Amino acid sequence: RERQKQVAEMQSLFADAEKIQSQGYAFKAIKKYKLVLESTLPDPKKLKDKAKERIEFIQSKIKEKSESNLLNADNLFKQGKIKEAVLTLREAIVYDPDNNEMKDKIEAYSFELTRQVRALYQEAIIEENYGQIENTDTKQGAKEKWKKITDMDLEDGEYYRKAVMKLRRYGVM
């Protein structure tokens, strides 16, 4: 009876891990499968082997998805869609938080985006100082540049917030 109880406990551990995996929680499922592997309970149904296979499967899927997202982000960056590249990487880092390559690219792409947006913001401030708020036939006004910044920058970006404040001051937003 005691053995049957322990076998049922092992099956329960494995079933719990499967349930978490089916809900889409990869890292939680890996932890649960590792509990199955580390268990000293009897394993007549070879659940430890299955748990090991599932861990390898989940890790391979995470790696595959990360590589796909890195490639996608690189392509977006090359096309000049830096904001979209950063957002893609931010979304992907949720699934692979230990991926240092992804973290480095987020940082590098964010830095490049900030550099570009800063230059545009500085131009807009100069335009504002010269009274060039609205567009003219030959020149883009400060308002238009601030609108462009809100399109280009991330919503949590420093220059996005500054541009929004300027646009509100002039009644655009």
Give short descriptive properties of this protein.
173 residues; mainly alpha; rod-shaped
Q: Would you give an account of this structure?
A:
The model has no long low-confidence stretch (mean pLDDT 93). It contains 7 helices and no strands. With 173 residues, the chain is an all-alpha fold. α6 (142-152) runs antiparallel to α7 (158-169). The chain starts with a helix and ends with a helix. The protein has helices at residues 2-22, 26-38, 47-78, 82-93, 100-129, 142-152, 158-169.
SSE layout and pairings?
Elements: H1 2-22, H2 26-38, H3 47-78, H4 82-93, H5 100-129, H6 142-152, H7 158-169
Helix pairs in contact: 1-2, 2-3, 3-4, 4-5, 5-6, 6-7
Entry summary:
This protein is mostly helical and 173 residues long. It is built from seven helices and no strands.
Distance between the termini: 72 Å
Structural class per helix/strand content? Answer: mainly alpha
Main beta sheet: none
Number of strands: 0
Share in β-strands? under 5%
Order of helices and strands: HHHHHHH
What general outline do the C-alpha atoms trace?
Answer: rod-shaped
What percent of the residues sit in helical stretches (DSSP H or I)?
over 70%
**Radius of gyration from the CA trace?**
26 Å
- Spans of 5+ residues with little confidence (pLDDT < 50)? none
